[in-house]
Amino acid sequence: MATKKKIDRSKLLSVLWEIQRKKRHIAHDDITKIAKEFELSRMEVEGVLTFYHFFHRQDCGKYTIYLNNSITSEHAGMDKIREAFEKEIGVPLGHLSFDGLFGLYETACIGLSDQEPACLINFKPFTNLTPEKARDIIHQLRNGAKPSEICDKPNSKIHYTPPPEKTVFFKSYNKFSVLNYIREHKPEEILEIIKKSKLSGMGGAFFPTGLKWQFARQNKADIKYLICNADEGEPGTFKDRVLLQTHPELLIEGMILAAYAIGASQGIIYLRGEYRYLKEALEDLIESYKTYNFLGNNIPAKEPLNFDIYIELGAGAYVCGEETALIHSAEGFRGEPSTKVVYPVQSGFKGKPTVVNNVETLCAVTRIVEMGVDNWLKIGTEKTPGTKVLSVSGDCKNPGIYEIEWGMNFREFLKLIGAKEPKMIQWSGPSGNALAEEDFDRNISGEDLICGGSVMVFDESRDIFQILKHFSDFFVSESCGICVPCRTGNFLLNKKIDKMISGKATHKDMNDVKEWSKIIQTTSRCGLGQMSSNSLNDAIKKFPEAFRKYMTDDSDLGNKFNLEKSVSEYEHIIKEITTDYE
Amino acid sequence: MNILLKKSLLIMNKKVDIIIDGNKYQSETGRNLVDVAKDFGIVIPTLCYFKEIHPTLGTCRICTVKINGRHTTGCTATVQEGMEVEINTPELLDNRAAIVEMLYAEGNHFCPSCEKSGDCELQNHAYNMGLTVTRYPHAFTHKAVDFTPHRMIMESNRCILCKRCVEEIKTKDGKSVFSFVKRGVQTRIQIDYKEESKLSDEEALHAMEICPVGAILVKGIANEKPFGERKYDFLNQQVQTKLKHEQIKLKDGEKFVVGTTSLAGCFGCHMSLLDIDTDLLDMVEIVEFNKSPLTDIKNFSKRCHIGLIEGGCANSENVHVLRKFRENCDILVSFGECAIMGGIPAMRNFVPLQECLEESYLNGHTSELGADIIPHSEDIPKLLDKVYPCNEVVDIDYYIPGCPPNAQHIWKVVKSILLGEEIPISYNEFKYD
After folding, report:
1. Per the CB < 8 Å rule, is A487 touching B103?
2. Does B7 touch chain A (CB under 8 A)?
3. Are residues B243 and B188 in the same domain?
4. Which part of chain A is CATH 3.40.50.11540?
5. Residues B299 and B258 both lie in one domain
6. What is the C-alpha to C-alpha distance for residues B317 and B327, in angstroms, rounded to an integer?
7. How far is CA B135 from the centre of its chain?
8. Residue A357 in 3-state DSSP?
9. Yes or no, beta carbons of A47 and B105 under 8 Å apart
10. Is A44 part of the contact surface with chain B (CB cutoff 8 Å)?
11. Are residues B261 and B196 in the same domain?
């Protein structure tokens, strides 16, 4: 008797998305049904869905508002927007309005840092919010307008590109033009070009792309996968979004070239949930490539090439930017990173050799083949040829996108973005480094200051502790929880920052922070824990006066413990029971 | 995966040289580093590592070692030709202790009331490392105890999220019984009730056994093993007291001055102190007591060399007394579970203060009908929002764990501090429960 075939686990996230979209939450009965279909235990399904914060167990409203709570949004006046929304829908943040129409939630950076404050309503972008605009949006939705009709087009301004002969990304491109290359050349030749180009992972890890491809190519398997990491989660980064909006064909063709080089037959674009509004256009584009037989079976090439692409939608988890976590997520599991016993190039998606490349990396592949590797090598520096797309936000005159040639002087860059008297530059996102005056004479390059794409500028008016606390909160809520040092260590460091802010910290606490950070950095399982305390330690080193202001004398016995605060709850209870309300 | 496994099997038997902590060893390639080191008599402590589970879990990170200069976990490493491994450097030893301490700070580990005490791998590591306290503040996060499953109890307060049960315990049709839910510090293990009821008695017991701590319990299975017969009771030899102060100098004819107090404790530690029997006679030869319940001296009349603190801080008076001790004593010693981590009184930390007071004075079984007064007066100390370990209120110099600490243990540590001699303490004296 034929038994019903078990559903492919990798469909789990898209099934959950489908239910979430239609029913606005995933109910008990839905989980039971999913568990049955996928032949999983109910709790395992629950484990997956509770990992991602865009999946809700309770109704989150016909219109679900996700207000961006990133630091740049906060500085741009997020609180006022939150108040406006709260007042308009009648419930506080984190709740569903009484009529069930609006759910108001906050979420980490949604990739619109240059247009803050911003929010997503049913995953449609609304940017440059003001309290009036927020009220108006609610009115319009109440009156039947659709979010897709009234949302903004989140176009970021491209402020700077190098001279034309040195521009890589932001210039016009003739669709399909590099695909002629594979008709006449073998996969090995593309691999050689990429190896020669010294292209490395632009998502921020900077692992040599050619090497990664070579490993994957060497590993024989019946099927290999190529995944594009479009889970741009590092707060302050939005360069991949802009590439996806302006030059998606570079990505698709880069994927085709990569697939040809490594022998992959299935491609996946893992698009972060926050960018769901880009999905349709990308799917249309993929369709158009299929129409011209550049995707699908027997793609015209010197050696046989079958390659197809589908889009997998993430559901709100920063850690899924880590490649092994991303693979788990795409497979329908919790987005927990693997131990580094085997690498994805050996055993990745569904246990097959898998290459994960960032959007910008794959776009660069197309350009390198187009311009020729020798021309590419003329741009940039020895270690990092080519250009880099940077997303700039915060306290500067011209927030937006900058394509710069590697090797640019940092001070020159600051002038370019119009940063007047910057105090702290958060470089490469919260997991990167905090830069100060002492760094401004350095160069932006692989040899010196390397950057994954996020540049957040903070001027004198900003409170460093507020920024650090914000970053720490972010890591605590985004740690996947699988390893002890990252899960617990970040939580405990966060408590230390609270202590500093309350003015009770001593020199011992500062030393604790340094020592604890080192332990977390050396023992954590993935990059999240290894990098999460970087900026805190940079700041302690570079802004000692800010910390001194908050510290108390080591010898002050009474100051270690806040007695007043600890008894205030009791005093309140006693006051309540002794007050006569009659 | 399979290809890799085959590959590693093929090259498995090849013997190669590796270096561990500067010494040369020969081992087969492809073997797990933890197992290999163990064969050579070098212990890499592990918690989540479980031989039956492949690939290895790598969740607890306490087996972090350095291989060719890079940090990685021992349980996920395999022997490769020429690899240089560092296992017991001061940095790595400290990392390991730190992770165990993190687990103690994150979870709610009340060893004296835990069924697995003495059989607990986490506790055993802490013993081995000679830990007396955690360097981190206790989180005291409220975590649920789930009694709903057919046969088991999930005690999340003790769970260290090693993931052994998730990977190892499956039903016959391959479904998970245990799953991780939520993420970050909110991650918990949840039992699937339907699948759990399909497990056999043996499988349920197996789940309890593979749990390295006391998080998975089987209903009706009492811990029948008496003290002394538990898995880790006498596994270890001894710890050494480690001194970190300058030797106390006395003038001729002077005795050491000691003060003691019991804060939020049960006086059990003081009782244990008196249990040193005839050693009391030796003690009074060299020691005089100042402020202490033993002498009934209410206020310090001279400066003390040592202050012994029993109990944590539950109210404002405890904080005042503790601060007075810190001011008047050169060296402060927390003795007993309550002083070190809050102990049994700290179990109220998971219940809102209002509820605690209402249950005690208004709604409890022992309160009178219509009782409407929660005692309060300027003269009554104010309750703190939660019970605090002493080291979160003032700096503490030494810790003597136990509930209560063994009499000999207390006396040896005190003697060691007073005389400035590092003294070995045997493991049947050094106890957390």
Report:
1. no
2. no
3. no
4. 160-377
5. yes
6. 15
7. 11
8. strand
9. no
10. yes
11. no
What is A63-150's CATH topology?
A: Glutaredoxin (3.40.30)
User: Tokens at residue B27, please?
Assistant: 């081992």
DSSP letters, A262-322, are: HT--EEEEEE-GGGGGGHHHHHHHHHHHHHTTSSBSS-SSSS---BEEEEEE--S-GGGGS
The rounded distance, in Å, linking the Cα atoms of A353 and A218 is 9
| Sheet-wide strand order for B398-400 | B287-289, B256-262, B304-310, B329-335, B398-400
Distance from CA of B156 to the nearest CA of A (A): 14
For position B145, which CATH number holds?
Answer: 3.30.70
- CATH 3.40.50.11540 holds for A160-377: yes
Q: With a threshold of 0.85, tell me whether the complex ipTM lies above it.
A: yes
The CB density around residue A492, as the number of other CB atoms within 10 Å, is 23
Query: Which residue, among A478, A507, A472, A465, has the nearest Cα to A492 in the 3D structure?
Result: A472
Q: Is A557 on the interface with B (CB under 8 A)?
A: yes
User: Is B179 in the same domain as B211?
Assistant: yes
Binary contact (A566, B388; C-beta < 8 A) = yes
Quick one: DSSP state of residue A200? Answer: B
Residues 300-359 of B with CB under 8 A from A: 316, 319, 323, 326-327, 353-354, 357
Mutate to test the interface with B, among A28, A39, A44, A568 (most CBs of B within 10 A): A44
pLDDT, block means (10 residues), chain B with 433 residues: 52 82 94 94 94 90 96 94 95 96 96 90 92 94 95 96 96 95 96 95 94 94 78 74 86 93 96 90 91 94 96 96 95 96 95 93 84 87 96 94 93 92 84 83
Domain that holds residue B341: 238-353+382-426
If asked whether residues B201 and B296 sit together in one domain, one would say no
Same structural domain, B257 and B336: yes
Q: Is the CB of A334 less than 8 angstroms away from the CB of B180?
A: yes
